[in-house]
Design brief:
By secondary structure, the chain is mainly beta. It has 2 domains: 33-272, 4-Layer Sandwich (Purple Acid Phosphatase, chain A, domain 2), CATH 3.60.21; 283-622, Methylamine Dehydrogenase, Chain H. It contains 6 helices and 49 strands. Strands 3, 4, 5, 12, 13, 14 and 15 form a 7-stranded mixed sheet that branches. Strand 41 and strand 42 form a beta hairpin. Helix 1 (48-60) runs parallel beside helix 2. It is globular.
Length: 624
């Protein structure tokens, strides 16, 4: 039996599928055509650009190809220059192409996932050819590690699109991830596709050709365009005849192989049956009945940052560009400020000022009471880093390789450090004398708080961008800095000079770290099930406790946050945990959704504000 993601069980449903393939009087009269199916080009890595250029040259020589589709992971690292290089190559095509991003294009995005649409015109598509409707959509995840996720704003787009298409019109859906539990809300799409005349779903992600099925819907995974270990790259040609679609591997300039797969075409109906499909369950909530949502606000847009708490106010931003203030006790909206582009980060509050960064290229200060703009500071590029405030100074990283200290009163610059080689997304740690932050250039930086000069920078031994200590919010105690990075190591550094106190890969921790209020314990979330508490004063790795929380595989960068002796954190599948900070015993668990939970914001030891990728802002409270 297939192993399901945490929080997923098999449940019975009547909306299950067994499709009936009925010869279609209309499809049988359609003119045959061929299109190219490309995926996972990974421009920016190895032979990615070269292989794509070879494929483009080959396609230009094949007159029978009507159009080209590309189903994600277009680039290796989602860098602006990688998208631009890809566009230059694709501009040489002599036929139309339709393109969507994949997780490599959205996770490490210096533009906050905005540059893809700027370069290619959109990050989703719909068109008709030969009597068929083709539509494509990505699942991110945006800026964070976790499962793929259909954004609420994209689901609305699908609904508005389907409302314009006759129910019997034959459809092809194209996306990056397979429509299974590798997506946290796959059912949002399969439920919709089963109600329509869906011929097939075409996906990438797995770098290989595979015959698949998604809750009864025919699925086809297409190979990567990369040559990988082979001598030559390749892609798929898909030919639609009157009643069948044939999938062939094409080796550029050499040969088109015999069909490796074929599916029937026709009028499909996905009927009810007794088959059980996987759906998220919320059984855990019945185990801790004293924990309930006091209120829930659904913004309708992806939220990738946490909330800030300021007295009786909760502040959070979303992908629509809105920063909103809610009453902490009731959830009632008090004010709303709209920036030009997405707000993907966690705001910070000091005094009467709310500071938030936007992908419109500005750092904003807003009035806590009214939401009116106090000032903005333009960085010139989309901002994806969280601000930190101490002693009337705002500390914030940029996508331009600069780290800035700004005056809280007016946004003017105190100093700027301009020697970072990649974009910054973390929230900086500000101590009495230093500012510490990581970037996607593989380095952790320590700057002089007074003037922004470099004190030291540290590298974990690799030049790999994806292993940079860049997403975790570093924490400190006892003159030491605690770091957990994608290299799965816990590292303790001396603040004064960056020397390593100890470093260990024993527990596969990753991008989620916290510190106890008294500085005695350093918390780190493991990639499988466990939250660890380390002795923060020890000169060697020393566990205080390790708690098996049974959340399964998890790579969500949700920082453990302690308040009133309780440690709170979230997971990639909607679970929120509360543990006793001293003993590690689980106080409670509550599932708010099935998607990524951002870094949570405890109000006290019994109440915590949670945001998630479904666009929800929720106040959870333990009544015990």
């Amino acid at each position: 039996m297939k192993t399901l993601a945490p929080g997923i069980t098999r449940t019975r449903t009547l909306l299950i599928s067994l499709f009936l393939l009925i010869p279609s009087f209309s499809l049988s009269q359609l003119k045959p055509f061929t299109f190219a199916f490309l995926s996972d080009t990974h421009v920016g890595s190895g032979t990615g650009a070269e292989d794509l250029a070879i494929t483009v040259e080959d396609l230009n020589a094949i007159d029978s190809v009507a159009f080209v589709v590309l189903t994600g992971d277009i680039t290796e690292f989602g860098a602006n220059k990688e998208f631009e290089e890809t566009k230059i190559i694709l501009n040489k095509l002599n036929k139309p192409y339709y393109i969507i991003p994949g997780n490599h294009d959205t996770k490490w995005s210096e533009s906050g996932c905005s540059h893809f649409a700027k370069v290619f015109g959109a990050d989703r598509f719909v068109f008709q050819h030969g009597g068929y409707t083709f539509f494509g959509l990505h699942e991110g995840p945006m800026m964070r590690m976790g499962d793929g996720h259909f954004a609420p704003e994209d689901i609305r787009w699908v609904d508005s699109l389907l409302a314009t298409i006759p129910e019997q019109a034959p459809l092809f859906f194209l996306t990056h991830y397979p429509l299974d539990s590798g997506l946290d809300n796959w059912f949002e799409m399969t439920d919709r596709l089963r109600k329509r005349n869906t011929q097939a779903v075409l996906v990438g992600h797995g770098h290989s050709n595979r015959k698949m099925e998604f809750e009864g819907i025919p699925g086809i995974m297409g190979r990567s365009n990369l040559r990988a270990q082979a001598k030559q790259n390749g892609y798929n040609l898909v030919t639609l005849q009157a009643d069948s679609a044939f999938f062939h591997v094409r080796h550029p300039g050499k040969e088109t192989r015999p069909a490796w797969h074929a599916i029937g075409l026709g009028t499909r109906t996905y009927e009810e049956s007794g088959t059980a499909f996987s759906r998220p369950d919320y059984i855990v909530n019945s185990q801790y009945t004293s924990v309930t949502p006091v209120w829930k606000v659904s913004t309708g847009y992806t939220i990738t940052g946490g909330a800030a708490i300021a007295g009786d106010r909760v502040i959070a931003g979303d992908r629509s560009g809105v920063v909103r203030a809610l009453n902490a006790e009731t959830g009632k909206e008090l004010w709303k400020f709209r920036s030009v582009n997405a707000v993907l980060t966690t705001p910070e509050v000091s005094g009467n000022a709310v500071v938030a960064t936007s992908t419109d290229g500005n750092v904003y200060a807003l009035d806590l009471k009214t939401g009116k703009e106090l000032w903005h500071h333009s960085t010139g590029l989309p901002n994806v880093a969280c601000p930190a405030i101490q002693d009337e100074i705002v500390y914030v990283g940029g996508s331009d390789g600069k780290f800035r200290a700004l005056r809280l009163k007016d946004g003017s610059a105190v100093w700027t450090f301009d020697s970072v080689k990649a974009f910054i997304e973390t929230k900086a740690l500000v101590t009495a004398t230093s500012v510490i932050f990581g970037a996607w250039d593989s380095y952790l930086y320590c700057l002089d708080k007074a003037n922004g000069s470099l004190i030291w920078k540290w590298n974990n031994g690799t030049n790999g961008r994806g292993l940079s200590p860049a997403a975790e919010w570093p924490v400190a105690a006892n003159g030491r800095i605690f770091v957990v990075a994608p290299d799965r190591a816990a590292t303790v550094l001396e603040e004064k000079d960056g020397s390593v106190v100890w470093r260990s890969k024993a527990h596969q921790v990753r991008e989620s770290a916290g510190i106890s209020k008294d500085g005695a314990r350093f918390y780190a979330k493991c990639m499988n099930d466990t939250l660890f508490a380390y002795d923060a004063a020890s000169n060697v790795e020393k566990l205080v406790w390790a708690t098996d929380c049974k959340y399964g595989y998890d790579i969500d960068p949700s920082m453990p946050m302690e308040r009133d002796g309780k440690v709170f954190f979230g997971t990639k599948n909607g679970l929120v945990f509360c543990l006793d900070g001293k003993t590690g015993s689980i106080e409670w668990t509550h599932k708010i959704s099935n998607t990524i939970v951002n870094t949570v914001a405890p109000i006290d030891g019994k109440s915590v504000v949670v945001t998630d990728f479904d666009g929800n802002i929720v106040l959870l409270r333990n009544s015990d």
